[in-house]
């Protein structure tokens, strides 16, 4: 039997496992070493495991790597040479090292220490994602029972070339919500153009509007709460200090792009997006987060999708690493 570590959001671990089994019924759950980390086994190759999503990313699965060795560690500096010796027995010297730890608060050494000992010539934060073979190490457990999961694979097999699926962003953001937009643009391969007219629903405090303005967009920001001070004086931002439901009755503009990160339950946000579709140009695109806070999240998601399909083609759905109890949708208005 083959084994693998699969990463996902802790809030969607059951959905991630279901997504795996829907395509590959022979996958078995073995353990959950940490929240959002699943150890699975299957009677076929790792390459076959991730093949269904090689050209179209799954919704809930963030990252995967094969497990070739599971090693108990003592949580002391002697672990480092032991790991190094193990890896030299099977890993090719040209493999790019990726180390992830879920126990940094109890480790007596860091993931960076592991990286330095095993691959001292490789940068800790590479500027480009790996394209060849990847040596993956996951450190998890507790101070009394530390475990290393180790495996070698091709970057193209891992669902994401980045460690744990976490994209590295160097652009500063105003708050955490900004990472959601950056990751959505990258994951959905959306290219924005200067001069694009954007409607930002639920814009406050303004992380998404700020990123859009940095790309030369003209933004109409709708929010009853104040925006960041720099947006209040930005001539490229038209502020509508009201609820999105209220602005809908007054809106007389057609936009190229609508973005929506409103704190509304999924169905309500979807209904509003359908009503706003008449203010999106034919073939225009939209990016929205769909909040799934309640326990019956699949029912909420299915209902929201049915509503959205009245006005949009759903291009992609992805539970981004930057998302919490939500998924992000890439939509295109129907002609």
Mean pLDDT over the full residue set: 94
Number of domains: 2
Topology, number of strands: 15
How many angstroms separate the termini?
49 Å
What is the spatial order of strands in the main beta sheet?
A: 11-10-9-12-13-15-14
CATH architecture of the largest domain: 2-Layer Sandwich
Helix count, DSSP H or I runs of 4 or more residues: 10
Briefly, what CATH class of the largest domain? Alpha Beta
Proportion of beta-strand residues: 25-35%
Q: Which oligomeric form is depicted?
A: single chain
As residue ranges, the low-confidence spans are none
Biggest sheet layout: 7 strands, mixed
Order of helices and strands: EHEEHEEHEHEEHEHEHEHEHEHEE
Give me the secondary-structure category: alpha/beta
Proportion of helical residues: 25-40%
Q: What labels describe this entry?
A:
4-stranded antiparallel β-sheet, VC0802-like, single chain, Rossmann fold, 30% strand, 335 residues
Question: Could you give the topology of this structure?
Answer:
Layout: E1 2-8, H1 13-23, E2 28-34, E3 37-42, H2 46-50, E4 61-66, E5 69-73, H3 79-88, E6 96-101, H4 111-118, E7 133-141, E8 146-154, H5 177-187, E9 197-201, H6 207-214, E10 218-222, H7 229-232, E11 237-240, H8 244-250, E12 255-260, H9 266-276, E13 280-291, H10 297-308, E14 312-318, E15 326-333
Parallel strand pairs: 6-7, 9-10, 9-12, 10-11, 12-13
Antiparallel strand pairs: 1-3, 1-4, 2-3, 5-8, 7-8, 13-15, 14-15
Structural overview:
Helix 3 crosses helix 4 and helix 9 packs parallel to helix 10. The chain has two domains: 2-165, VC0802-like (2-Layer Sandwich); 177-333, 3-Layer(aba) Sandwich (Rossmann fold), CATH 3.40.50.150. The protein has helices at residues 13-23, 46-50, 79-88, 111-118, 177-187, 207-214, 229-232, 244-250, 266-276, 297-308, and strands at 2-8, 28-34, 37-42, 61-66, 69-73, 96-101, 133-141, 146-154, 197-201, 218-222, 237-240, 255-260, 280-291, 312-318, 326-333. The mean pLDDT is 94. It is built from ten helices and 15 strands.
């Amino acid at each position: 039997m083959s084994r693998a570590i699969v990463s996902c959001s802790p809030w969607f671990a059951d959905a991630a496992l279901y997504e795996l089994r829907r395509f590959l019924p022979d996958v078995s759950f073995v353990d959950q070493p940490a929240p959002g980390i699943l150890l699975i086994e299957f009677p076929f190759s790792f390459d076959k495991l991730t093949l269904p999503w090689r050209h179209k990313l799954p919704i809930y699965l963030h990252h995967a790597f094969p497990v070739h060795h599971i090693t108990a560690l003592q949580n002391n500096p002697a672990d480092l040479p032991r790991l190094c010796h193990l890896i030299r027995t099977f890993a090719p010297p040209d493999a790019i090292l990726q180390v992830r730890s879920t126990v940094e608060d109890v480790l007596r050494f860091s993931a960076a220490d592991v990286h330095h000992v095993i691959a001292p010539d490789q940068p800790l934060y590479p500027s480009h994602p790996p394209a060849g073979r990847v040596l993956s190490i996951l450190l998890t457990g507790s101070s009394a029972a530390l475990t290393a999961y180790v495996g070698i694979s091709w970057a193209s097999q891992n669902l994401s070339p980045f460690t744990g699926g976490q994209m590295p962003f160097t652009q500063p953001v105003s708050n955490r919500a900004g990472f959601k937009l950056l990751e959505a643009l990258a994951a959905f391969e959306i290219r924005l153009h200067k001069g694009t007219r954007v409607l930002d629903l639920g814009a406050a405090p303004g992380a998404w509007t700020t990123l859009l303005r940095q790309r030369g967009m003209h933004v109409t920001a709708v929010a009853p709460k104040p925006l960041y001070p720099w947006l209040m004086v930005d001539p490229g931002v038209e502020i509508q200090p009201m609820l999105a439901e209220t602005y809908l009755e007054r809106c007389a503009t057609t936009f190229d792009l609508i973005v929506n990160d409103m704190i509304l339950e999924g169905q309500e946000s979807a209904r509003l997006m359908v009503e706003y579709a008449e203010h999106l140009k034919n073939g225009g695109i939209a990016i929205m987060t769909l909040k799934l806070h309640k326990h019956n999240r699949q029912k909420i998601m299915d209902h929201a999708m049915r509503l959205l399909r009245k006005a949009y083609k759903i291009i992609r759905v992805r539970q981004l690493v930057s998302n919490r109890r939500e998924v992000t949708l890439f939509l295109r208005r129907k002609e």
